[in-house]
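Example 3.
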Amino acid sequence: MTKNIMIVGVGGQGSLLASKLLGHLLLTEGYDVKVSEVHGMSQRGGSVVTYVRFGEKVYSPVIDKGQADFIVSFEKLEAARYMEYLKKGGRIVVNTQEIDPMPVITGAAVYPENLIEKMEAAGATVDAMDCLTLAEQAGSSKAVNIVLMGRLSKYFDIPVEKWQQAIRECVPPKFVELNLKAFELGRGE
Amino acid sequence: MKELMLGNKALARGLYEAGCSVVSSYPGTPSTEVTEEAAKYDEIYCEWAPNEKVAMEVAFGASLAGKRSFCGMKHVGLNVAADPLFTCSYTGVNAGMVICVADDAGMHSSQNEQDSRHHAIASKVPMLEPADSAEALEFAKKAFELSEQFDTPVIIKMCTRIAHSQSVVETGSRVVPEPKPYEKNIAKYVMMPGNAIRRHPIVEERTRKLTEYAENCVFNRVEMGGTKLGIITSSTSYQYAKEVFGDSASILKLGMVNPLPVKLILDFAAKVEKLVVIEELDPIIEDHCRRLGLAVSGKDVLPVCGEFFPNVIAEKLGVPVPEHAALGEALPGRPPVMCAGCPHRGLFYTLSKNKCTVLGDIGCYTLGAVAPLSAMEMTLCMGASVSAIHGFNKALGAESEGKTVAVIGDSTFMHSGMTGLANIAYNQSNSTVIILDNSITGMTGHQQNPTTGYNIKGDPAGKIDLESLCRAMGFNRVVVVDPYDLAACDKAVKEELAASEPSVIISRRPCALLKYVKHNPPLHVDPDKCVGCKSCMRLGCPAISVKNKKAVIDSTQCVGCGVCEQLCKFGAL
C-alpha cells in the first residue's frame, strides 16, 4: 500500500532538507520512493509543496486531493490551504508559525483566525506545535524542518535510531548535533 | 547502487555514462539542473551559452568535430533554437547529438504551455519521452546510439513532473566511444539549396526507417491487463494511468513519441474493447490514431489546458475519486513576491511613482507587475521588451517617448536583448531601455552569464562590459544607478525620459540572495514615531507589515537594504 506525505510551506522555509531526509530514510528501509517538488517562480516567497510517496511500487510522482496520509506544514495558513489533499483519517502535523502573504501585507485580505480549530471541525486530526521556538532552543530558527520531522517520526514504525542515522547522513557534519537536538525536541520524548 | 535521483540529475548521469564530451545550454525552468549536474563531472566540458540558439549550434559543432554533445533548454528555448534544429535535421550528425527540452504543462514557471512534440514533428527529428528518473538516465544513453545509428539529432522531452521528481535509479560507469574523425563533407554539411535539396529526401527516408524502428524498439512497450479498456500514453500520464487503473486496463506506453509507430498501435487497438489516449496538452497521439482509422477517445473528455493529476484522469474516465474534507472558506492566496532586499524593488517603485508605461521581460523582475508595484504592462518572451518599446515609440512618437521604458535583466539582455538594442541604435527611436543588472541569472536559481565574469563552474571567465557595449552600439547616454538609492533612480529616470535621444539606464546591484552579498542588520520601526501612514507599504516588501496601525518589520526576512527608510517622512525606520 502506497503511503503519501505532503510537505507544504512558504518558499525558502527549508522543505528541501525535510524531503531529502525522508527520501533517504525510506529508501534505506527498502521502499520504492518518489519525491516531487517544484522549482522556479513559485519559490519566491510563494506557496510551495513537496510530495513524498513510498510503498512497494510507486507510480504517480504527485499526490492528489483526498490521498495524503500526512500533511506536514511549515506554516498554519499553508496547512489549511492544502487540507483538502488529506485522506479521510489522515493527520496534519503543523508548525503554528504565521507568515503573512502579500494580500495580507497590503491589507487586501486578513490572516484567517482559529485555523487549527477550523481544520479539526472539518474532520482533520491536527497535531500543532510551535516549531520555531523549539528550533531556536535547538540552536537555529532554520531547524524548523527537522523539528517537524521529529514530530512526524512518532507516527512511523521506524526505530528512532534509523531517523537519527538518516540525519547524520543528510546534513553537513557541523550541523548534525543541532539537528539531532531539533529532532529530539520535535519528537518530544 | 540504488539511489534517489532527480529526473534532471539522472539525465545528466546518462550523459556522463554515454561518454558525452561537450554540453552547452541556456538555463530555463524546468531544464536547468541537467546542465548544472553535468557540470559536476570533470570529464564533460560544460558551459552556459548566451541563448539556446547558440547552445544548439555549439553542440552541433562538437558533434561535427566527432565528440558526443548535448544542449538543454526549456520549451520556449526550443523556439529560439528552432533555426539550427530544423536544418541540423537535414545535415545529420557526426558523433551523437542529443537535445533536451523540458515542457512546463501547468506553467509553474513559464509564459506559455506549448507542447514541444510539435517541434519534433515539424523538424522531423526523433523524440524520446522518459516517465521517471531511471528512464531519463537510460534514454539519455540510448539517445546517443539512436543519433549515431540514424544520423540525426535526438530530442529528449522532459516535463516539470519528471524533471523535478526524484525516483530510484541504478548508475553505471562511463564509457567513452571512439571519437569519429572529422571529415570534410560539403554535400552533407553545407546547406545551400543545391545540397539541401538532396538532403531532404534523405530526411524523409530516415523518418520512414525510424517509424519501422518504433514498431519494435526498447522505448515502447505493451503492458497487458484487463482488455475492456486500452490506454495509449507516455511520460507522467503513464504514471497517473497506472495509479488510477492498475492492472484493470491494458497500456501501450510510448517512450518514443516521434515518429509514432503504426502497426504497434493497430495491434494494440485490436486487443482491447475501448481505446483511450491519455496525453497532456495537445492531442498528438490521438490525432495519429484517428489517421489510422481508429475509434479513440482523448481530448473529448480530458483537458487540453494545464497539467494532469490522477484525480482528473479518474474523474473524466469514470473512476471514483477519494472523498476529501474542505475548510469551506476562501483563504488569502500566497503568490510569489520579490524577495526582501531585492534590488529590483527600488527601481520599480521609481517607475510606479513616475507613472511610466513599462514594457517588461522574462525574469524575477516580471514580479514588478504584481501589486502594489503593478509597474509592468507587457511581458512576452526573452528580449521582447527592447524590441517592443521601439515599435511602441515608432507608433506613438512623442506621445509615448517621454514616459515609456523597457526593463530587461542582464542575462535576458545577453540572451536576446542586444539585437533589439541594435535596432533602436540603427533605426533611431527615442527609447529608454533599463538593464536590471543583478549580476546573475536569478529566477532559474543563480546561473552565471556573459556579464558576470564567471563560468558555469564559478571560475573566472570573460566579462562583457555593459556600458562599453551600449556605447559601442552608438548610445551617447548610458547611466548607471544603484537601485537602493531612490533619489538617484528618480533623477536618472526623469532625465533619460526627457532626453531627446535614445538612452540606457543600468540599474546595478547584485541579487540579495547571492552568497557573497553582505547584508546590513535588519531595520526596526520606532512605534512612537510611526504614524501608520503606510508609505513604506507601497514597496510591497514581504518583510514589512502593519499590525495595530503601526508598521512592523520581520527581522528574519529584512536584509537592511534601507529603501523603506528613504520613504518614511517621520524617521520611524
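DSSP finds eight helices and six strands in chain A. Residues 15-28 of chain A form the longest helix (14 residues).
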